[in-house]
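This part of the workshop introduces the protein records we will be handling. An example says more than a description, so a record of this kind follows:
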Amino acid sequence: MRANASQAPARDPQDLARMLIARERAGDADGMAALYEPNAILDCGGGRLAVGREAIRSFYAGLIASGIQFELGDQREALVGEDLALTSTRLPNGNLTAEVARRQSDGTWLWVIDQPSIA
């Protein structure tokens, strides 16, 4: 597992999905987890949730080790209101993602809730 593929923060909520995929392809589970707030929730599928950045990092480390690679789909325009944003992508297989991001005090964005497959 390689670390520090890119530790640049997301300045726009639309950047998060692209950054997640770039870090996944670089084998950077730490960098992937850094895109989430410390107490974020990631739906891992099958009724399993990863709660907190360390659990999210562990989940992504397992995905990287399995050889699975994400593909960037058709990202929808983020719906931004104040300090929250709803991001969503239609994946190449037709599934949809839905994520809630929050603007941090320094103006960067981190995901709070991530539902990678809702359909």
Summary: Residues 15-115 form a domain with the Nuclear Transport Factor 2; Chain: A, fold (CATH 3.10.450.50). The two ends are 30 Å apart (CA to CA). DSSP finds three helices and seven strands in the chain. The chain has a mean pLDDT of 91.
